[in-house]
Amino acid sequence: MDYSTILSAIKTKVTTASGCSNVYDYERWAANWATILALFKTSGGLIHAWMISRVSTHRQAQSIGAAERAHVFRIRGVYGLDDSAATEKTFQGIANTVAEAFDADLTLSGACLTLAPDWGPMANQVGLQINDVDIRAFGNILCHHADCRLCATESPNY
Length: 158
Description:
This protein is of the alpha+beta class. The protein is built from 3 helices and 5 strands; from the N terminus they run αβαββαββ. 25% of the residues lie in helices and 36% in strands. The protein has a 5-stranded mixed beta sheet with strand order 1-2-3-5-4, covered by helices on one side.
């Protein structure tokens, strides 16, 4: 198990969570607005995307010459806002579905030791943490936005 294996497993989890579209294993941004829209839009024209990026890695000694790593990932979701369609309810439901996908598999099918670390920056936090849900403008389009965190620990045998 290593960083790239963990990242791939996280992307698979988000991709297969019910209701998710346009899942990327890195932050997608561009200076050109048309490019951003092309990356974030679904085939039906709705802005909906999820991006996964590592924000930090921490190490803890396990034995002489061996250290366990804890990778903290930011998982961001965006979803086009339409008040008349109550899209906040839809987006909140999708965010819950993503969190539940991780709750059901705290080792990412063996890609990491655990998503419930007992040490490090997210000690005693289990699975995906939905830290902030708000409204943001992407260009001139209002979207629901979720900023989530997930900590995956990696074996000292990397």
